[in-house]
Amino acid sequence: MKHQIREDNGALVVALEGDVDLKTSPDARKILLDAVTRNLPMVVDLSGVHYIDSSGVASLIEAFQKARKAGRKFVLAAVSESALRVLNLARMDKVFAICPSVAEGLAKVR
Question: CA–CA separation, 45 vs 49, rounded Å?
Fold first, then answer.
């Protein structure tokens, strides 16, 4: 799994790429939780995620909860079809704000 983090006009964009599974979810968790500590609204770009399992979803949930507890906005954006299927099956589409593009995600968190 690869990742990129960039700041965009006072918001953080965390782009994950590849598989977020049992092997890589500890890294994803650390990346996401570290990003939350930057005290900026956050957009997680999942356009490059080919596969996500329950451990990856758990990493997203933990970061979301930490952001919410800190009063920070947290959205998922540009979620790939395969990742969206998993989120829908787990009913996480009811928990997360999900935007069709990173630009729309940024607009939502500002």
Answer: 9
Q: What is the dihedral of CA 35, 95, 69, 107, to 10 degrees?
A: 60
Q: Phi/psi of residue 93, each to 5°? A: -65, -15
8 Å CB contact between 78 and 100: yes
Q: What whole-number distance in Å separates Cα of residue 72 and Cα of residue 48? A: 24
Residue-by-residue pLDDT tens, the chain, 110 positions:
999 999 999 999 999 999 999 999 999 999 999 999 999 999 999 999 999 999 999 999 999 999 999 999 999 999 999 999 999 999 999 999 999 999 999 999 99
**Residue 64 and residue 28 in contact, taking contact as beta carbons nearer than 8 Å:** no
The number of beta carbons lying within 10 Å of the beta carbon of residue 101 is: 13
Sign of CA dihedral 35, 3, 108, 95: negative
Nearest to 102 by CA among 2, 6, 13: 13
Q: What's the Cα-to-Cα distance from 80 to each of 28, 31, 34, 89, rounded to whole Å?
A: 16, 19, 23, 14
